[in-house]
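Changelog excerpt: complex records now keep ligands as SMILES alongside chain sequences, and the structure block spans every component. Example after the change:
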Amino acid sequence: MFIHWALKEIHLKIVYYGPGLCGKTANLQYIYTRIDPALKGDLITLKTREDRTIFFDFLQLEVGQIDEKKPKFNLYTVPGQINYNHTRKVVLNGVDGLVFVADSQKEMMDANLDTLLDLEKHLIADGKSLEEFPWVLQYNKRDLPNIESIQEMETKLNFFNVPSFEAVATRGTGVFPTLKEVIKQVVAKVQQQIEEGKRMRA
Ligand SMILES: Nc1nc2c(ncn2[C@@H]2O[C@H](COP(=O)(O)OP(=O)(O)OP(=O)(O)O)[C@@H](O)[C@H]2O)c(=O)[nH]1
Ligand SMILES: [Mg+2]
């Protein structure tokens, strides 16, 4: 979180995390096409020729008001490829909320879990933990034939019982429910922090 007092803005960072090719960029691309131009910045993407993310995708959104300040949500994706571990760590710096995008295809279950554990490791190194952090799960690619059941994915990945959403990111299905829930959690946490801050000063 970063508060720009002069502009009365609160900048909040949401990161889409998940294994390679799970659909993180597809989420941001859909959001970008559906947001009022007055409320969004450019979609900035840094990708290889094969459309794989090499550093991150970035999109800024404006939503409502918190404590008389304008919240600006900075949405980032991480690169999912194994060899970009350091980049993922850098992109996670200062994160306020997370969307874990899982790939529903059966053969991706190990990669989903490994990536989730890798995320937890980065958070712990930064003094945070999935157990007490605003985050949601998205089960993406529900349109493909060889997918795992939701029940099985819940058992394998949702060990902290966070809100979860089925999605087909390329069609936009489930994309906004996922985003709205993570925003709701992040805002609730920020409001709590602001109230605590006020009490401390009182
Ligand atoms: N059928 C189907 N394909 C999808 C879905 N979401 C994404 N894809 C496809 O999966 C491929 C990878 O999607 P991306 O959004 O680039 O995945 P990513 O997670 O950003 O991948 P990296 O940046 O390489 O980590 C693309 O060909 C997408 O069109 C989905 O819900 N269903
Ligand atoms: Mg990507």
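The chain has one domain: 2-201. The chain is about 35% helix and 25% strand.
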